[in-house]
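Re: the request from the purification team.
They wanted to know what the chain is likely to look like in 3D before they choose a buffer screen. I agreed to run a prediction and write the result into the notebook, where they can find it.
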Amino acid sequence: MPNNIVHLLVALTQLYSFILLARIVLSWIPNVDLSNSIVQLLYQLTEPVLEPVRRTIPPLGMIDLSPIIVFIGLRILQSVLTGMASDF
């Protein structure tokens, strides 16, 4: 894979990490307006990734571990991509 594509993919995984972080922060805010277009966009972007993880690893009491698992997966993906970039 050419270096430019790898760097783009690393940047996209970082962007997705920020989107996921925003979703997590929103979940801590009581009475957040779920009809807000920005909130809906965050949910639409993150739920397709979080939901399968949530089905595999159910919440631990009141704690949803799926965002942590996804963050770890994103970091592993970034490491693999960065390693690929250094091979070129």
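For the purification team: The chain has a mean pLDDT of 91.
Please add any questions underneath this entry.
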